[in-house]
Amino acid sequence: MHRxxxxxxxxxxxxxxxxxxxxxxxxxxxxxxxxxxxxxxxxPTHVTGSAWVVSxxxxxxxxxxxxxLDQWFQPGGHADGDxxxxxxxxxxxxxxxxxxxxxxxxxxxxxFDVDIHWTPATADAPAHEHIDIRFLVEVxxxxxxxxxxxxxxxxxxxxxxxxxxxxxxxxxxxxEKTRQMRHGFDNR
Length: 188
Known about the structure:
By secondary structure, the protein is of the alpha+beta class.
């Protein structure tokens, strides 16, 4: 994937959420203006990739308690120069979950969600902004999820319990899209 491919995916992405529509417009403008948008050294903003991981019956999502940020999130991370943001999301899912990549099933090559958020400063980096491009993937929830050292904990969360782990707006959007999928509606 090249920067132009990300721009195409962003241009094709449709959402019923006004905040996400604004994020898509901002993401397009940013990616058009910054050929180095996939580099984590580009501050204060850069593109990241993540995955909303659902169980086959769409009743659970995989969440991890991020060690550095001390919050629950979906798997994801920095592109580190990789312009194929879908590959980044899949790689981060496998790495952070400890699941064999062959067990991570991409449900659509289309963008599932777009979010722009600030990440607080850590010992390794100043506060900065992520343009997070999210894809929908499925993992068998009966598999062992060993995780890795980036997380305190990782596990499956029942949909109605997700807000107890993370109640931010972007998680709410992905949760609502998942609920709509379970009821046979368009997930955007």
